[in-house]
């Protein structure tokens, strides 16, 4: 098609979408936005990385040719960038990374939209450091509309960077290659020259030329597909023009996949996995509808379709591209015959996470990546809450505290952690923003304020925020304004503060507070105070968080009255009898820890030991997690946290056991292999025996709830790990029956059965699981089998695993070889000893098999599992044997970890813990 004939209708359509005048975007600094600098990271970033705003894009027209069907890794493309010159300039600056430019042509678009006038071929200057390309014109361009045509070539990669290549084996064991994209956060520039900043939105037209045996999909529906006039073996797939969108959200895929359809909902996957897309198709439609209703902003008002695609050998992540969400296969495919309840949960919640982004990130994008929490915090919250709206019976919302809040607490307790708002400029700086702060902490803080203002107010505020900022970008202040408007005159906030004041105390300062409660028992009062919680120290901090709090006691469980601590300390009236416990932060809605005076802790523990149901299960989980971490930071006597754990013998709910699982795992890692381990094992047996006796370890009932399955796996794993004979016999028999009698183990219990059945078994059982893994075309099942295979204690089996990853005829996915070695390390000391022995003479072979990065990680992980004098000597021999294959930093880190493990026994924490577990050493086990 001729250039001018395409342009005539294009401009009219583009301008109808974006309007005659395109907004001029200006970057707002933290200072200009009114963000408090107290306790915030105020470091300067390199402003040279940001684009000048002399030119502003309003449309891209991309024509790309790919030969991915033949595994050709280069592509050819021509992109036309339509832009406004808003300040006269002779430099048109965009982003570009590793593209080879062959031709440039610049055109001026007349004010009357007549035929474009070519005004030259700009010179190209590329700065690879800041990834800018400057197109220099011979004379200054006056204010007006222009388009720049750039012809170039690029290269595909094997990892998540731009236009990437993946492969899979079909049912005939033939390798097929497919192409897909990943542009977040700053990778669109690897495929086309562009203004690669999220607030510089533009409409996009995309044409892809590809082999006729393949098909192409993208954000928008296909407009037409016709034979390539230059080559009858190829077709040109043309897509409809998109809404205004950020460059990082553009997506396309060129594959030989099959599709399934449910109205406007589509799912694509390789032909030998398309049968596993039923859950994604059904859950996608239901979750999208639930989010439509919740936000009050219908998705299909802005995008005409929703497509999901499962990309093979792309890990477990996903990307929220508008209208074309891409997933690693384990996050989209589900087969009830081989995948268990955890796989179902992952698929369902990942879909909810990515679909939440269609509003939070796509319809409204962050003004810049320093505000990434406006994307990821909302998506993390609705990963759970959105699923609750669509599938309340699955109980996934009950996992939010233990999987989100308590996970965020761990990393957010470091002195050098960042705040939610955090300046960034370079690619590395931006990438480092995609962390637990952007996801788990931000989701926790948003959920806290959702509960503070109430669901109806929350929904009203979000609807207004989305509609006012739609097809544009936002900064946190835009959200605060709408939240404030939604609760005006409702007296929900402490005087004289606004939502902005309250939220900035959480978004602009690193870390989180601990709420200290010191009761005055005679008067029924309490002195509450706040300071920053750090895992390994206590430091004075001037910052004051606005902490919403409530409390419950034995006589009143409602805890509905919400109060605020907006000072460093305050005296409050508890109206609680002195012989009654009090618990703050009802059901752990707030993002903070709570510590009490010793007497209140004792009252709580006494109640847990006699009638734990008196305390809500979410608070029981909170108490376990808080007590342990408060003790580790020297804010609470470790003996209190350990005594609290003893109540678990009466615990029948998953959330407290999930919190306890983290605590027990910590002590297991410290005590394994030492003389104190027997006492720990006896203690675990004592607290698990009662609940274990009620569990069907190797079978699944139709009426089992999701949370019961979580509970069963957690408790039975500990029972088997501690050597419970019944557990080990049951799992061994169940696995043996599958091997010999073909009585398949139910996927919901396979993790425990395969791991501990194999742990008791020999090479014969491993020789069954290895082919089962190799032959499986379900990536989630393959990963589960790899994790199980690492559990073996049999030396011959471990050596066989280390040998099989080096057999060239065995087909492994890209990360599976290193996963096998990691599984061996995680499986126990028996496997580690065999691995060390193997590495003494075969380090180079293993390095070649798994790669340098994974090899260095294996060495440091071995060190983390080093407890005894003999193990430390063994480690030193290993470090000497591999010194030429690892970095000096790896050697140093390995020694530090081993020394830290040894030093723990001389710490106060270690001495108190050992004394506690020694009391159980004389008990008879099982």
Structure description:
The chain has 926 residues and is of the alpha+beta class. The chain contains 27 helices and 30 strands. The strands form 8 sheets. An 8-stranded mixed sheet has the order 5-4-8-2-1-11-14-13. The chain has a 5-stranded mixed sheet with strand order 16-17-18-20-19, with helices on one face. Strands 9-10-15-12 form a 4-stranded antiparallel sheet, with no helix packed on it. Helix 12 (617-632) runs antiparallel to helix 13 (638-645), helix 23 packs parallel to helix 25 (869-882) and helix 24 packs parallel to helix 26 (888-903). The model is unreliable at 1-5 and 16-40 (pLDDT under 50).
How would you concisely characterize the structure shown here?
By secondary structure, the chain is of the alpha+beta class. It has 27 helices and 30 strands. Helix 23 runs antiparallel to helix 24.
Biggest sheet, spatial arrangement of strands: 5-4-8-2-1-11-14-13
The global form is globular
**Can you give the mean pLDDT?**
92
Contiguous helical run count:
27
List low-confidence stretches: 1-5, 16-40
Question: N-to-C terminal Cα separation, in Å?
Answer: 80 Å
- Tell me how many strands there are: 30
Most strands sheet: 8 strands, mixed
| SS strand fraction | 15-25%
Structural class by secondary-structure content: alpha+beta
Identify the quaternary structure here.
single chain
Instruction: Kindly provide the radius of gyration, computed on alpha-carbon positions and rounded to a whole number of angstroms.
Output: 29 Å
| Percent of residues in helices | 40-55%
């Amino acid at each position: 098609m001729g250039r001018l004939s395409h342009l005539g209708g294009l401009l009219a359509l583009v301008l109808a979408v974006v309007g005659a005048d395109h907004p001029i975007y200006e970057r707002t600094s933290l200072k200009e936005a009114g963000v408090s600098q107290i306790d915030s990271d105020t470091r300067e970033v390199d402003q040279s990385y940001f684009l000048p705003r002399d030119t502003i894009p309003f449309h891209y027209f991309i024509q790309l040719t790919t030969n991915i069907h033949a595994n050709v890794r280069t592509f050819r493309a021509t992109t036309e960038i339509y832009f406004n010159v808003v300040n006269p300039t002779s430099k048109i600056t965009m982003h570009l990374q590793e593209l080879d430019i062959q031709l440039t042509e610049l055109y001026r678009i007349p004010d009357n939209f007549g035929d474009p006038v070519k005004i030259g071929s700009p010179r190209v200057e590329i700065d690879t450091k800041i990834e800018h390309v400057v197109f220099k014109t011979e004379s200054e361009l006056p204010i007006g509309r222009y388009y720049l045509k750039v012809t170039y070539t690029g290269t595909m990669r094997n990892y998540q960077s731009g236009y990437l290549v993946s492969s899979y084996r079909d049912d005939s064991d033939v390798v097929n290659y497919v192409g897909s994209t990943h542009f977040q956060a700053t990778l669109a520039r690897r495929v086309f020259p562009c203004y690669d900043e999220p607030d510089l939105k533009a409409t996009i037209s995309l044409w892809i030329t590809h082999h006729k045996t393949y098909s192409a999909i993208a954000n928008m529906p296909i407009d037409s597909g016709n034979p390539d006039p230059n080559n009858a073996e190829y077709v040109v797939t043309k897509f409809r023009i998109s809404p205004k969108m950020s460059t990082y959200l553009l997506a396309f895929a060129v594959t030989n996949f099959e599709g399934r359809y449910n109205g406007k909902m589509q799912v694509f996957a390789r032909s030998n996995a398309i049968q596993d897309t039923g859950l994604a198709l059904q859950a996608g439609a239901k979750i999208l509808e639930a989010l439509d209703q919740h936000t009050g902003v219908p998705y299909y008002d802005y995008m005409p379709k929703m497509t999901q695609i499962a990309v093979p050998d792309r890990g477990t992540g996903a990307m929220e591209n508008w209208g074309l969400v891409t997933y690693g296969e384990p996050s989209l495919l589900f087969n009830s015959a081989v995948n268990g309840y955890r796989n179902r949960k992952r698929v369902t919640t990942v879909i909810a996470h990515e679909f939440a982004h269609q509003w939070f990130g796509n319809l409204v994008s962050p003004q810049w990546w320093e505000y990434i929490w406006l994307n990821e915090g909302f998506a993390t919250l609705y990963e759970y809450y959105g699923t609750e709206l669509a599938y309340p019976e699955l109980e996934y919302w009950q996992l939010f505290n233990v999987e989100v809040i308590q996970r965020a607490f761990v990393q957010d307790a470091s002195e050098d952690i960042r705040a939610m708002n955090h300046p960034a400029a370079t690619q590395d700086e931006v990438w480092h923003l995609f962390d637990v702060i952007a996801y788990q902490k931000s989701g926790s803080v948003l959920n806290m304020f959702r509960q503070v203002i109430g669901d109806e107010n929350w929904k009203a505020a979000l609807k207004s925020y989305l509609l006012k900022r739609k097809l544009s970008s936002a900064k946190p202040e835009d959200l605060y304004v709408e939240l404030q408007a939604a609760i005006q005159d409702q007296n929900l906030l402490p005087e004289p503060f606004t939502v902005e004041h309250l939220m900035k105390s959480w978004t602009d300062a690193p870390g989180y507070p601990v709420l200290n409660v010191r009761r005055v028992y005679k008067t029924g009062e309490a002195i509450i105070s706040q300071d920053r919680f750090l895992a390994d120290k206590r430091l004075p901090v001037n910052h004051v968080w606005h902490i919403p709090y409530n409390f419950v006691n034995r006589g009143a469980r409602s805890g509905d009255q919400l109060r605020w601590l907006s000072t460093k300390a305050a005296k409050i009236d508890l109206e609680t009898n002195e012989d009654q416990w009090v618990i703050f932060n009802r059901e752990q809605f707030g993002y903070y820890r709570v510590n009490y005076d010793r007497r209140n802790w004792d009252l709580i523990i006494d109640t847990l030991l006699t009638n734990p149901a008196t305390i809500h299960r979410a608070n029981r989980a909170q108490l376990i997690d808080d007590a342990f971490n408060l003790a580790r930071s020297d804010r609470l006597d470790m003996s209190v946290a350990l005594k609290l754990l003893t109540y678990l013998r009466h615990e029948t709910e998953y959330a407290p056991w999930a919190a306890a699982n983290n605590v027990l795992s910590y002590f297991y890692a410290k005590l394994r292999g030492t003389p104190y381990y027997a006492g720990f094992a006896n203690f675990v047996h004592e607290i698990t025996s009662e609940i274990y006796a009620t569990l069907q370890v190797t079978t699944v009932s139709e009426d089992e709830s999701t949370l019961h399955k979580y509970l069963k796996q957690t408790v039975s794993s500990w029972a088997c790990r501690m050597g419970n004979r019944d557990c080990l016999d049951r799992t061994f028999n169940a696995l043996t029956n599958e091997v010999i009698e073909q009585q398949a183990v139910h996927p919901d219990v396979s993790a425990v059965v395969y791991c501990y059945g194999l742990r008791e078994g020999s090479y014969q059982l491993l020789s069954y699981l290895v082919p089962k893994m190799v032959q499986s075309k379900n990536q989630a099942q393959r990963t589960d089998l790899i994790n199980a295979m690492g559990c073996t204690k049999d030396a011959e089996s471990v050596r066989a695993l280390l040998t099989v990853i080096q057999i060239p005829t065995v087909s492994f996915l890209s990360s599976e070889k290193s996963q096998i070695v990691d599984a061996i390390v995680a499986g126990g000391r028996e496997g580690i000893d065999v691995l060390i022995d193997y590495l003494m003479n075969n380090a180079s072979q293993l390095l070649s098999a798994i790669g340098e990065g994974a090899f260095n990680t294996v060495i440091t992980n071995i060190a983390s599992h080093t407890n005894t004098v003999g193990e430390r000597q063994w480690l030193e021999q290993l470090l000497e044997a591999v010194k030429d294959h690892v970095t000096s930093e790896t050697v140093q880190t390995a020694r530090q970890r081993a020394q830290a493990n040894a030093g723990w026994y001389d710490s106060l924490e270690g001495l108190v813990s050992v004394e506690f577990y020694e009391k159980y050493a004389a008990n008879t086990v099982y």
